């Protein structure tokens, strides 16, 4: 099974398709700024769950963020969990630079 992931900036999401099918197998939605990309929702169609579609979405999106020099704000539980299980991507996580003291 071949998973192809493409960024659709006009839709603010990555889409995954399997074996050249037209049907979208999964999506990772994001909000991008000049310095970071926030991943807000990831969803995989039930028939593709457990087949690597979510991992392909996460890996492609995070590799793109790295290539663009962007930090990652992982508000989506799937992306946050994926990063937690793949230490090589933890350096991408956004860290607040605020010095505000309560």
CATH architectural grouping: 3-Layer(aba) Sandwich
Average residue-wise pLDDT: 94
Query: For the largest beta sheet, what order do the strands appear in spatially?
Result: 1-2-3-4-5
CATH class: Alpha Beta
**Regions with little confidence, pLDDT below 50 for 5+ residues:** none
Shape verdict? globular
Order of helices and strands: EEEEHEH
Strand content: 25-35%
Distance between the termini: 52 Å
CATH homologous superfamily title:
Gcn5-related N-acetyltransferase (GNAT)
Per the CATH scheme, the topology name is Aminopeptidase
Indicate the percent of residues in helices: 10-25%
Could you tell me the number of beta strands? Answer: 5
Number of domains: 1
What summary fits the major beta sheet? 5 strands, mixed
Instruction: Determine the structural class based on helices, strands and strand pairing.
Output: alpha+beta
Quaternary state, please?
A: single chain
Radius of gyration (Å): 14 Å
Please tally the helical runs, counting DSSP H or I stretches of 4 or more residues. Answer: 2
